[in-house]
Specification:
Helix content of chain B: over 70%
CATH topology of chain B: ABC transporter involved in vitamin B12 uptake, BtuC
Number of domains of chain A: 1
Number of helices of chain B: 14
Radius of gyration of chain B: 19 Å
Radius of gyration of chain A: 19 Å
Low-confidence stretches of chain A: none
Mean pLDDT of chain A: 86
Strand order of the largest sheet of chain B: 1-4
Order of helices and strands of chain A: HHHHEEHHHHHHH
Largest interface: A-B, 39 and 40 residues
Number of strands of chain A: 2
Low-confidence stretches of chain B: none
Number of strands of chain B: 4
Largest sheet of chain A: 2 strands, antiparallel
Number of helices of chain A: 11
Strand content of chain A: under 5%
Shape of chain A: globular
Oligomer: heterodimer
CATH architecture of chain B: Orthogonal Bundle
Strand order of the largest sheet of chain A: 1-2
Number of domains of chain B: 1
Helix content of chain A: over 70%
Largest sheet of chain B: 2 strands, antiparallel
Distance between the termini of chain B: 16 Å
CATH class of chain B: Mainly Alpha
Order of helices and strands of chain B: HHHHHHEEEHHHHEHHHH
């Protein structure tokens, strides 16, 4: 393959990565932005989404692949959202959202979810069939239509989120809580309920992203670590808590990670980006796109 | 009264050290090796506690310091055929350099950012051990030969593959760490560190250079972690990437939280308890980390002081 088409293929792979990453990171970004909570178990919510998708597909069998997929697309975020709601209610709220305590607690939740899945789902990676087979033929190579669907779906969800945040009352309440918790409470916003729903919503984004990606990758009980780290990177680069920054950063990092991984070693790509991000956090704590406050 | 309490606390720590020495004569064979291993992990936990328990800095990257020592000693013995003593001393030096560098950079942040920065540097180191797989052999790891693990001390030669020598070396290292931590906790430095944990701004106002003090804490904690890593590879002859994973940083945190952060013996108690709890659960299920998760959530919700922290709070206020 020539360099041009190869770059196109790498960019498409990068876009798929960026699509999934922006959804996962958006969830983490919402919980951090609104609640100031660093949710270390975010990657496990992602993993659970993938496992539920596998579970739905394997119960219905290959004959109903499409229906199984649609059910998973609906069910996975719901189940994961409920689980997140429960962990918010019974753990995070009792800790009063204190940063260090919540980090330790979410590490605990991470292990609990991961090991429970290991006990029930097993240690092996399990594939899920894509809901449809559709091949787009470029002059140089054929490309899976499902991957393009993933990109499209992510764009739809992201636009929807933007609309909700910027144009509706729900978004207004969330932004008010993010800006000044005490003032929002003084104006009658039920902070506790906002926190609970935001935490659940954050987890639901992760689950949704996982259902989208699971036909391309496979479901595995350790698959949460990578998206967690990448989401951290995206949220930090984007300016902690800034939704727009996170999405821009997700596209940037997803694309460059996809492209660098195709030309160089994936481990090297991860090393370089992790190191850069640590340095960004040290020397530009407001993130690359964030505005300096205080 | 005050000197009396000081004596009691001295006796208590001496008794623990003595008890660990005497334990080797009574332990059944299968526990002999396990206790040796837990003693080395306890040294790691004591190192972690100096930063987390006394200074109040929660690092999620201590696996890096541990594996810096592990790999410095492992790689020099494996590739350069250094003696065990040379490798051990050099890993102290490399651990020191790493701690100074990481401390100087990471301490520019605080709170949540400090945790994430330490986590990320540690992750870079872990990925590095996978990337330079020609030297480190990544996940598969390095296995040191038996001949490489003999050393001479005061004209007598010792063999680190001999279980009883291993036990004594691990015990010696743990005893020195307990004494070291005890001395620090009682010293002016230790009190200044506790002051930073309780209220950094106020400590600054009292005229302390808190950045330097925190840096000193990172250096002590990081170097001691490297020492425990170096001891681990020299005693058990294996160095692999898994030691650099986040898992090991969290283990140190777990031991410290369980035993009691900010107490000298807490991390040791936590390490022993965790080890045996996991040992028992792993007989029933491969998902033995479940117990670690449950204990973490339980501790942080209902029992944030840990065992010895609670004991100190209720009964023995003089416990260091």
């Amino acid at each position: 393959m020539d360099f041009g088409p190869f770059l196109l293929l790498a960019s498409l792979e990068g876009l798929v990565q960026a699509a999934v990453l922006s959804l996962t990171a958006l969830g983490l970004c919402l919980t951090f932005g609104v609640m100031r909570v660093v949710n270390v178990s975010h990657g496990e919510f992602y993993m659970l989404g993938a496992v539920i998708a596998w579970w739905a597909a394997s119960i219905l069998g290959p004959k109903y692949a499409l229906s199984g997929y649609l059910i998973a697309l609906f069910l996975a975020p719901c189940i994961v959202g409920l689980l997140a709601l429960a962990s918010e209610r019974f753990v995070l709220r009792s800790l009063n959202y204190e940063p260090e305590a919540t980090i330790v607690a979410t590490i605990g939740i991470l292990y609990i979810i991961q090991q429970t899945v290991l006990m029930s789902f097993g240690p092996d990676a399990k594939p899920v069939n894509p809901p449809f087979y559709f091949r787009i033929d470029f002059p140089w190579f054929g490309y899976s239509g499902y991957k393009l669907f993933v990109i499209g779906a992510a764009i739809v969800v992201l636009s929807g989120t933007w609309y909700v945040l910027a144009r509706t009352r729900v978004g207004l309440i969330m932004r008010a809580t993010q800006l000044d918790r005490d003032m929002a409470q003084a104006f009658g916003i039920p902070i506790k309920r906002v926190y609970a729903y935001v935490f659940a919503a954050g987890a639901m984004y992760a689950a949704l992203a996982a259902v989208l990606i699971v036909p391309i990758r496979q479901a595995h009980y350790l698959m949460g670590a990578d998206p967690l780290l990448m989401s951290f990177i995206v949220v930090i680069i984007g300016g902690l808590g800034s939704v727009r920054g996170a999405i821009v950063a997700a596209v940037l990092i997803g694309m460059s990670d996809g492209i660098i991984s195709m030309f160089f070693s994936p481990t090297l790509a991860k090393m370089v980006s992790t190191l850069l991000v640590a340095l960004v956090l040290v020397f530009r704590p407001q993130g690359l796109f964030g505005v300096k406050t205080s | 009264m005050k000197t009396h309490r000081k004596l009691v606390s001295l006796y208590l720590h001496a008794a623990v050290i003595l008890g660990l020495f005497l334990a080797q004569f009574f332990l059944p064979d299968y526990l002999y090796l396990a206790v040796t291993r837990v003693m080395i992990l306890s040294v790691f936990a004591i190192a972690y506690n100096i930063l987390f328990g006394y200074t109040g800095l929660l690092s999620l990257g201590h696996a890096m310091f541990f594996s810096v020592g592990l790999y410095t000693a492992g790689l020099t013995v494996y590739h350069l055929e250094w003696s065990a003593a040379e490798a051990f001393v050099s890993s102290i030096g490399v651990g020191l350099i790493f701690s100074i560098l990481l401390g100087a950079v990471a301490l520019r942040t605080s709170g949540v950012a400090f945790m994430i920065v330490t986590l990320m540097f540690s992750q870079v180191f872990y990925l590095g051990t996978l990337y330079f797989t020609t030297y480190t052999r990544g996940d598969e790891g390095l296995v040191l030969s038996e001949g490489a693990r003999q050393f001479t001390f005061l004209f007598a030669s010792f063999d680190l593959s001999d279980p009883s020598v291993r036990y004594v070396v691990a015990w010696l290292l743990l005893s020195l760490s307990i004494i070291f931590c005890y001395v620090i906790a009682r010293s002016r430095l230790g009190r200044a560190l506790v002051a930073i944990r309780e209220n950094e701004t106020r400590t600054q106002m009292l005229g302390y250079n808190t950045f330097m003090l925190k840096l000193v804490a990172v250096i002590i904690s990081g170097t001691l972690s490297s020492i425990s890593g170096a001891a681990y590879v020299l005693l058990f002859a294996y160095a692999g990437s898994s030691f650099a994973t986040i898992q090991y940083s969290i283990d140190a945190l777990l031991y410290t939280l369980l035993g009691g952060a900010g107490t000298v013996l807490g991390p040791v108690l936590g390490a022993f308890l965790m080890f045996f709890m996991i040992d028992i659960t792993s007989e029933y299920t491969s998902a033995y980390l479940l117990i670690a998760g449950i204990i973490l959530v339980f501790l942080v919700m209902y029992f944030p002081r840990g065992i010895l922290g609670e004991v100190r709070h209720r009964w023995l206020q003089w416990l260091p």
